[in-house]
Write a structure and sequence with these properties.
The chain has 348 residues and is of the alpha+beta class. It has ten helices and 16 strands. Helix 9 (289-302) packs across helix 10. It comes from Pelodiscus sinensis (Chinese softshell turtle).
């Protein structure tokens, strides 16, 4: 069974960047099937399309032949095109188990730019600048949903920050000030772009800011965080909002060396990049509280066998984060444990 599962995973790719709420899920699954069957995409026979998944905008494609999987992965660019989608969408693909944090969904409030830009034109500019992102239709209040890889979202944050700072600079030269409007900020589900440079490295060396994927932050904090920051004379505070966590680093009173902050920030960013490429996340969804409790108990009962696995229980589900191999083994063992429990209960 383990050999069969391993062979299946070798023929499975993870696809991210799939547009959300444009067509029905079964239609999108058909579009994906057709895309990966086409010879121009170096595709072939598809055994199964798993969509939707627990991660928004992500699908799993399982091929019949290992060679087809390799050919698809070797293609430089995949564009999802279908007349039902309205336009093409760039896809990011990887072999199953290589990367798991492939897609982040967030909400932007672009109303801060309404005084200087036509927001529809701004959205087009953002899409052309960072084509890996997917945007929903712009709402009348200036809000828009955006979806893409964590690195693409971070690039978007930097781009909007540059624009916000530019507008702030113009206001100092006599133009209308942005901060006269209440709540004048561009917000991305916990990632704010403010004209007061809150997200720019403090030039005085008093503060540094790091933006991380929340799941990676939780794993880093649990296994590496104290170890990585313990060598530096810095203190940190964290703000978690949805899929984004922002870490603010400041010098302790005993130190005023700005290089300490810079080194601490660099270490966190390097560790985050490594974890981004090595971690995998699985999720246990349950419909009832009692079922969720059984999964939680099963996770706790075998956790000691997997010291590098992080289990995060939520009200509606349980997330499991770790290396690809350990996460797979852990989730399989949890499922077997829960199954044995229900079998014993049924015999009674």
């Amino acid at each position: 069974m383990a050999t069969e599962q391993a062979a299946k995973s070798e023929k499975t790719i993870v696809v991210s960047g799939i547009p959300d709420n444009i067509v029905k899920d079964d239609v999108m699954a058909d579009i994906l099937m057709i895309h990966f069957q086409k010879s121009k995409n170096r595709g072939g026979d598809v055994q199964d399309v798993v969509y939707p998944t627990t991660v928004k905008g992500v699908a799993y494609i399982i091929f019949e032949d290992l060679e087809v999987t390799k050919n698809v992965l070797q293609k430089d660019e995949h564009r999802l095109e279908d007349k039902r989608l309205g336009r093409y969408y760039p896809l990011k693909i990887s072999l199953y188990g290589e990367h798991i944090f492939t897609c982040v969904s967030s909400v932007l409030n672009l109303s801060i730019f309404g005084e200087k830009y036509v927001l529809e034109d701004l959205v087009q500019e953002l899409w052309k600048t960072i084509p890996a992102l997917n945007f929903s239709p712009l709402q009348s209040n200036g809000q828009i949903s955006v979806q893409g890889s964590f690195s693409a979202i971070k690039s978007l944050k930097d781009y909007l920050l540059s624009k916000a700072n530019s507008l702030s600079g113009n206001s100092k030269r006599g133009e209308k000030k942005l901060d006269q409007r209440p709540n004048s900020r561009t917000q991305k589900q916990g990632l704010f772009v403010e004209p007061n440079n809150k997200f720019v490295d403090n030039v005085s060396g008093e503060e540094q800011v790091v933006v991380l994927d929340t799941d990676i932050y939780y794993y880093m904090k649990h296994f590496f965080y104290k170890e990585s920051l313990g060598k530096y004379k810095v203190v940190s505070r964290e703000v978690t909002d949805g899929e984004i966590t922002t870490i603010y680093l400041e010098n302790t009173r005993a130190s005023s060396d700005s290089r300490e902050l810079e080194r601490a920030k660099e270490e966190i960013e390097e560790l985050s990049a490594k974890l981004h490429c090595s971690l995998r996340k699985e999720r246990f969804n349950s419909n009832t509280r009692s079922e969720r409790q059984k999964y939680k108990q099963a996770c706790e009962s075998i956790k000691s066998q997997f010291p590098k696995i992080l289990v995060i229980p939520y009200d509606t589900h349980i997330d499991v984060i770790g290396s690809s191999s350990e996460t797979y083994e852990f989730t399989q063992e949890v499922c077997r444990t829960v199954k044995r429990h229900f079998q014993k209960r049924f015999r009674r």
